[in-house]
């Protein structure tokens, strides 16, 4: 399931618990509504403009994505227009605030994505299981993990499980070829969200290799489960994991990724330090915290 869809359904769940009636759709239907919550400034541009024209006094919340902030804003005027029209801008990690145009930052706030986890973090394998979760598309640099495996020491016990739908035929072919030629790599496509969380909970490490992220939900899930993360050094990951996090590598650098993975596997002190840093972040991703933030936001806007 795409991260944006997960976000939409989670907000729907919180809002319904707070007593609101909520409809989730890919675009605004034109039906009467007290408030519009839009996810993705570029894709929701038409819905935002139409809602504002029909109900100029009703609030619009815009949740900004990584592609809004780190790609589309520079090339599509609709992104900033959506941001200017919205009453409140939401970002999913703190460093995203720096990417919002200065004249709009006063109406931006961070709401961290929460995770409700039931799966226990139990690693039973004698290998060193590493997981990569995310649909296979260019923005994710999905095969950095596969490129790094031939650079690992021959005695490494690392085994990589790659979950996510291939978004085109070339990605599917490449993933299949790596699965056939690399003994330590297995791509199995998309699993249900429940099964994905179970697989994550059975992993020693998660790798997120994205070139851009608004605030990846899988990172929040890893935090909730206490699974250390090796992450590409981008604002979307720094805004969740913190500037002092020890598990960053330069984007696209498979040699540095291999080095970090090897350190995590062979140096218990380094692995423990990563684990400790992840565990200190668990409060950020608590459902109670996110629900309270959403309640404060909607109450204030509807009151205004």
TrEMBL record:
Taxonomic lineage from the root: Bacteria, Pseudomonadati, Pseudomonadota, Betaproteobacteria, Burkholderiales
The protein's matches in Pfam families, at most eight in alphabetical order, are given as: Glycos_transf_1
Q: Where is the Glycosyl transferase family domain?
A: 126-277
Protein species of origin: Polynucleobacter duraquae
Write down what this protein is called: Glycosyltransferase
Please give the InterPro entries that the UniProt record associates with this protein.
Glyco_trans_1 (IPR001296), Glycosyltransferase_G1 (IPR052622), Glycosyltransferase_put (IPR027627)
Q: What GO MF terms are annotated?
A: glycosyltransferase activity
Coiled-coil positions: none
Give the top-rank taxon of the lineage listed in the UniProt record for this protein: Bacteria
């Amino acid at each position: 399931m795409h991260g944006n869809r997960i976000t939409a359904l989670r907000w729907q769940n919180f809002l319904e618990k707070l007593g609101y009636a909520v409809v989730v759709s890919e675009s605004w239907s034109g039906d009467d509504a007290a408030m519009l919550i839009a996810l993705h400034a570029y894709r929701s541009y038409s819905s935002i403009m139409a809602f504002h024209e029909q109900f100029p006094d009703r609030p619009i919340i815009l949740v900004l994505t990584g592609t809004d902030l780190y790609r589309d804003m520079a090339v599509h005027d609709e992104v900033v227009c959506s941001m200017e029209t919205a009453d409140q801008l939401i970002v999913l990690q703190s460093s995203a605030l720096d990417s919002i145009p200065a004249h709009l930052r006063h109406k931006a706030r961070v709401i961290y994505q929460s995770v409700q986890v039931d799966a226990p973090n139990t690693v039973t394998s004698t290998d060193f299981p590493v997981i990569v979760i995310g649909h296979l598309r260019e923005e994710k640099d999905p095969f950095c993990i596969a490129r790094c495996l031939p650079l690992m020491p021959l005695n490494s016990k690392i085994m990589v499980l790659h979950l996510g739908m291939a978004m085109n035929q070339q990605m599917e072919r490449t993933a299949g070829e790596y699965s056939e030629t690399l003994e330590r790599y297995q791509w199995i496509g998309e699993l249900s969200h429940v099964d994905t969380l179970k697989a994550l909970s059975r992993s020693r490490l998660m790798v997120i290799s994205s070139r851009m992220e608004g605030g990846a939900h899988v990172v929040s899930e890893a935090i909730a489960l206490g699974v250390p993360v090796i992450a590409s050094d981008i604002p979307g990951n720094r805004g969740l994991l913190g500037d002092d996090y020890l598990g960053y590598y330069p984007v696209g650098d498979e040699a540095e990724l291999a080095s970090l993975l090897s350190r995590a596997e062979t140096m218990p002190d380094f692995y423990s330090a990563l684990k400790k840093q992840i565990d200190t972040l668990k409060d950020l991703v608590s459902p109670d915290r996110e629900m309270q933030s959403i309640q404060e936001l909607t109450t204030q806007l509807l009151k205004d």
